[in-house]
């Protein structure tokens, strides 16, 4: 298995532009998580899905952030409009079941200028 | 919700010595405690985990201990090597409570092994 695949690896965009981050979880994993990592705030959970259904989106910073999981093999995290404070590394992770540990993707380093 | 505190935030040890990182959690219902290692510019990777029905678990040079009464758990690395240098994160979750089974991470410990 190729693991959790995220794209793009790096994204530089101007303030106000729309940004879409993509994730392909490990086949057969029921859970998918989106995390944001910054030096100041560490690893923050933004949202997670179970069997493609959003379970908890309480970590989504504001209405500018949205996430979808249209099928078991694909998820997107969208920021519209983007702001400089959104600059961070965004990780997607998947898990076979809860209590089995997460496998993280390589992350997307987002820079908003 | 769950709150996980991790100490120390930075730790430097001589190569060959042992390193210990400690975490406390707030939710007594938490029952799953993994540890992740993140090398510079890389993804966090699971290195060991423990469940609440076990007090200790070992994997070669790495061990994790859990004290449910005190609500704390620790990572022990023996015979440290330069490749152990990384940021280590602890985490906790209630793996049996649907809707609350997400991992809450500690703030990380930057471990540096001095050759």
Could you please describe the fold and organization of this structure?
The complex is a heterodimer of chains A (113) and B (115). Chain A is an all-beta fold. Chain A has strands at 5-7, 10-13, 19-24, 31-38, 42-50, 53-56, 65-71, 74-79, 88-95, 103-104, 108-112. Chain A contains no helices and eleven strands. In chain A, strands 2, 4, 5, 6, 9, 10 and 11 form a seven-stranded mixed sheet that branches. The mean pLDDT of chain A is 94. By secondary structure, chain B is an all-beta fold. Chain B has no helices and eleven strands. In chain B, the strands form two sheets. In chain B, strands 2, 4, 5, 9, 10 and 11 form a six-stranded mixed sheet that branches. A five-stranded antiparallel sheet of chain B has the order 1-3-8-7-6, with no helix packed on it. Classes of the chains: A mainly beta (113), B mainly beta (115). The A-B interface holds A 33, 42-43, 45, 48, 50, 55-56, 91, 98-99, 101-107 and B 31-32, 34, 42-46, 49, 51, 89, 93, 95-96, 98-99, 101-108.
């Amino acid at each position: 298995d190729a693991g959790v695949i995220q794209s793009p690896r790096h994204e530089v965009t101007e303030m106000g532009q729309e940004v879409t981050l993509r994730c392909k979880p490990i086949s057969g994993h029921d859970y998918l998580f989106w995390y944001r990592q910054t030096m100041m705030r560490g690893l923050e959970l933004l949202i997670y899905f179970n069997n493609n259904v959003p379970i908890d989106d309480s970590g989504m910073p504001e209405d500018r952030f949205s996430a979808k999981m249209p099928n078991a093999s694909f998820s997107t995290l969208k920021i519209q409009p983007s702001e400089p404070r959104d600059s961070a590394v965004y990780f997607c992770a998947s898990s076979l079941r809860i209590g089995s540990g997460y496998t993280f993707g390589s992350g997307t380093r987002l820079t908003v200028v | 919700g769950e709150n996980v505190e991790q100490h120390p935030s930075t730790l430097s040890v001589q190569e060959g010595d042992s390193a210990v990182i400690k975490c406390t959690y707030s939710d007594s219902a938490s029952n799953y405690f993994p540890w992740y290692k993140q090398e510079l510019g890389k993804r966090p990777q699971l290195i060991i985990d423990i469940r609440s029905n076990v007090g200790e678990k070992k994997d070669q040079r790495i061990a994790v201990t859990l004290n449910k009464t005190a609500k704390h758990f620790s990572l022990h690395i023996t015979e440290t090597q330069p490749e152990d240098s990384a940021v280590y994160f602890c985490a906790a979750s209630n793996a049996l409570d649907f809707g609350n089974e997400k991992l809450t991470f500690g703030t990380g410990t930057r471990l540096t092994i001095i050759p």
